[in-house]
Amino acid sequence: MSRRRTITVLAASAALLAAACRPAPKAGTAGLGAEISRPVLLDKIKGGWAGQVIGCTFGGPTEFRYPGAMIADSMTTFIWT
Known about the structure:
2 helices; about 0% strand
């Protein structure tokens, strides 16, 4: 039984490796990859970090104010402390 399992694991690993080693799609064809310039990439990374920091900063005061409770729709004002 152990030998059969070893052969099965090796075959599955080989199939996975073969599937992962396929060539990249050519430019202009539908694929998962895209090419962007370095300045555009850096701008996107900086924007993502800015969004994360802003979300944490402004979400912090209200994070655990209403644990396990639904906030009523009629509640329109929040007291920021």
